[in-house]
Specification:
By secondary structure, the chain is α+β, with helices and mostly antiparallel strands. It is 57% helix and 17% strand.
Length: 177
């Protein structure tokens, strides 16, 4: 018997997927949970060039524990198919859930398609900021090297100063004009 696992609960209905490698999801329980016409959705899926190429029938255990030949989509396609369902076409109890789901999809698509551009933009801003820090550090380092060089020269001059130098310096007549 085919093993299944619940992937989500909609309007108190467990939506299941097969536990095999491809994870197929029967669409009828989803249609029933949303209060939409299964036959219409099946036709829409079969007519869709992408969904139609992956839809198939598979013996699957239903909610009643019996095995049925069910129309299934691979799990990775379920979310896109659900996105095509208009909230106005579902049972009134499920409209808000479908609306929220679609809003999450819009957000996820936006994140997916803008994340790289946002990353590149933020990375460039940080590179520019860090380049300014590096340039300032280099300038500070050059200035520090000059100050150090001057200080070392004065230090060396002071260390080599003799009493004779000191006396000679004091005897020189200095005029400040």
């Amino acid at each position: 018997m085919e093993q299944t696992k619940t992937i989500v609960r909609v309007n108190n209905v467990d939506i299941i997927a097969t536990s095999d490698e491809q994870q197929l999801v029967p669409i009828r329980p989803i249609c029933e949970a949303l209060g939409i016409d299964y036959s219409r959705q099946l036709k829409k899926i079969k007519d869709d060039p992408d969904l139609g190429s992956v839809v198939g029938f598979k013996p699957t255990t239903g909610a009643d524990g019996k095995t049925y030949e069910m129309c299934c989509l691979p799990l990775e396609y379920i979310f896109g198919w659900l996105f095509t369902i208009s909230p106005s076409n579902v049972h009134e109890d499920a409209q808000e859930i479908v609306r929220k789901y679609r809003m999450e999809c819009y957000h996820a698509l936006f994140q997916h398609f803008t994340a790289r551009a946002r990353f590149v933009e933020e990375k460039q801003k940080e590179i520019d900021r860090q380049l300014t820090v590096v340039d300032e550090a280099k300038e500070n380092f050059r200035n520090a090297k000059n100050v150090l060089s001057d200080a070392e020269a004065k230090f060396k001059k002071l260390r080599s100063l003799t009493m004779d130098d000191y006396d000679m310096e004091r005897r020189q007549l200095k005029f400040n004009f």
